[in-house]
Every structure is written in structure tokens, then in C-alpha cells.
Design brief:
CATH class: Alpha Beta
Shape: globular
Number of domains: 1
Oligomer: single chain
CATH topology: Glutaredoxin
Helix content: 40-55%
Strand content: 15-25%
Distance between the termini: 83 Å
Number of strands: 7
Radius of gyration: 24 Å
Number of helices: 5
Structural class: alpha/beta
CATH superfamily: Glutaredoxin
Strand order of the largest sheet: 2-1-5-4-3-6-7
Length: 161
């Protein structure tokens, strides 16, 4: 009768030891959300600080106001290259973006948003994921302000400054 009790106690002790060791085991590293990828499929860290202000513009090839705004953003980026980085994140498919860029080449860095890109827009206050949508990040990647709708030159300059 003693032997089954000892075996039972040994099993309970082993299970308890295992559970305690799992409680203290390090958690697996959390994978960062990838909000966009470049045209080659490499992850782009949309929210990373760059040491400069960062203008993140969400657009789509099928969005007329977005398409009209892109040349302004490109020109503004060229004129402010020392203090500003601009990233155009397409809420679109890679095929549509490539087709668009063949017809309308851009020098701006262009990325294609993942399924998390719209989640990021919502987190930044764009609850209906309207396009175009632009966010300004400080040099450390912190959100400064957001804007829904297309810019004209004066509004863009006021937004950045």
C-alpha cells in the first residue's frame, strides 16, 4: 500500500516541478508587427524613428485625391530632405502599386501596407480608414499629429511645421 502512495507523491512532485519551471521560463520573443513592405517584399518599419521628422502618407492607386497629392508630397520631400523623411504607404496590392508606378514613377520611398497598416491608421485616429491619411512622427518615431484628406502646398507646410 505504501508503494502506490510513494509513486503518486513522486508523480505529483514531478508535475508541480514542471509547472513551476514553466512559470519561470522566459516567454518567447514577441514578433513586431510589420505594417508595410517595400516593393521587393522586405519589411519597412513605418514607425521607426529616423532622426528626422517622418511624414507617413497612406494612399491607394484607386484613390483620386491620393494620386493628385503624390507629386506635392514628392516635391515637398525633395525641398526638405535635410529635416524630413517621407514614406508613401499604399493600401493596395503590390501588383496595383507596380502598375501605377510604371505609369507614374515616383522618387519617394513607396511601401505596400500589410493587413496591419489599416490597424495602425485606426490606432492613429482614422477610425474609418479614409484615404489619403497622413501622420507626422517626430525624430524618435512618436506620433505628433495626423491629417485626413489631401493637402495643398500651404496646408502641408503648416502641418509639418
Amino acid at each position: 500500500m505504501q508503494r502506490p502512495v510513494i509513486v503518486f507523491i513522486a508523480i505529483v512532485a514531478a508535475v508541480a516541478g514542471f509547472l513551476i519551471s514553466q512559470k519561470n521560463a522566459p516567454l518567447p520573443a514577441q514578433t513586431a508587427k510589420v505594417y508595410a513592405s517595400d516593393l521587393a517584399g522586405e519589411a519597412v518599419d513605418v514607425t521607426a524613428g529616423s532622426g528626422k521628422l517622418k511624414l507617413v502618407n497612406f494612399w491607394a492607386s484607386w484613390c483620386a485625391p491620393c494620386v493628385e497629392e503624390l507629386p506635392l508630397l514628392e516635391s515637398y520631400a525633395k525641398d526638405n530632405t535635410d529635416t524630413l523623411e517621407v514614406l508613401a504607404v499604399a493600401i493596395d496590392t503590390l501588383a496595383h502599386v507596380n502598375e501605377f508606378l510604371e505609369k507614374h514613377p515616383l522618387e519617394l520611398p513607396v511601401a505596400v501596407g500589410t493587413s496591419y497598416a489599416t490597424e495602425l491608421m485606426v490606432d492613429w485616429g482614422n477610425d474609418i480608414t479614409a484615404l489619403p491619411f497622413t501622420a507626422l512622427l517626430d525624430a524618435d518615431g512618436n506620433l505628433v499629429r495626423v491629417h485626413s484628406g489631401a493637402f495643398d502646398a500651404k496646408a502641408l507646410d503648416a502641418f509639418v511645421h
